[in-house]
């Protein structure tokens, strides 16, 4: 199981720059940050190139001083891996809990929580 932690202060303006996460060989699993479109705050591009062992790792991505928690539970062999995105207060992630196949990429949208 791989556990990546990305923590963040709630910034509702679009992030100007951010660094991604890369771990494993070649790398086996990556999370990159892209600018959002329209009302999106940012996008996380989650790519599972191929994780072969069950393990837990922790790390973080800084998005203009903001951090988002990303938990990755890596399964053995060619089984899909589970990803849980926990954004800071004021932001929501879509999707926030999903399974990702080997050699698959999923885009997660970060957006402000609607005010009622």
Describe the structure.
The chain has 116 residues and is mainly beta. It has one domain (2-112). The chain is 0% helix and 45% strand. The protein has strands at 2-4, 21-23, 29-35, 42-48, 62-63, 66-67, 69-73, 81-86, 91-94, 97-100, 104-112. The strands form three sheets. The protein has a five-stranded antiparallel β-sheet with strand order 2-3-4-11-9, with no helix packed on it. Strands 1-7-8-10 form a four-stranded antiparallel β-sheet, with no helix packed on it. Strand 2 (21-23) and strand 3 form a beta hairpin. Residues 1-17 have low confidence and may be disordered.
Given as residue ranges, the uncertain stretches (5+ residues, pLDDT < 50) are 1-17
- Count of individual beta strands: 11
The strand line-up of the biggest sheet is 2-3-4-11-9
**Biggest sheet details:** 5 strands, antiparallel
Shape: elongated
* Number of self-contained structural domains: 1
Number of helices: 0
What structural category characterises the helix and strand content? mainly beta
Q: Give the termini separation.
A: 37 Å
The helix-strand sequence is EEEEEEEEEEE
- Rounded mean pLDDT is 77
Question: In what range is the share of β-strand residues?
Answer: 35-45%
Give the radius of gyration.
14 Å
Helical fraction: under 10%
């Amino acid at each position: 199981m791989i556990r990546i932690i990305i923590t963040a202060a709630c910034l509702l303006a679009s992030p100007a720059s951010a660094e991604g996460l890369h771990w494993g060989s070649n790398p086996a699993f990556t999370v990159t940050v892209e600018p959002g479109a329209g009302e999106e705050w940012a996008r996380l591009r989650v790519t599972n190139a191929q994780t072969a062992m069950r393990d837990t790792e922790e790390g973080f991505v800084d998005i203009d001083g903001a951090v988002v928690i990303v938990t990755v539970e890596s399964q053995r062999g060619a089984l899909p891996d589970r990803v849980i995105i926990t954004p800071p207060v004021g932001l929501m992630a879509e999707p926030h809990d999903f399974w990702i196949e080997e050699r698959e990429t999923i885009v997660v949208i970060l957006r402000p929580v609607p005010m009622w």
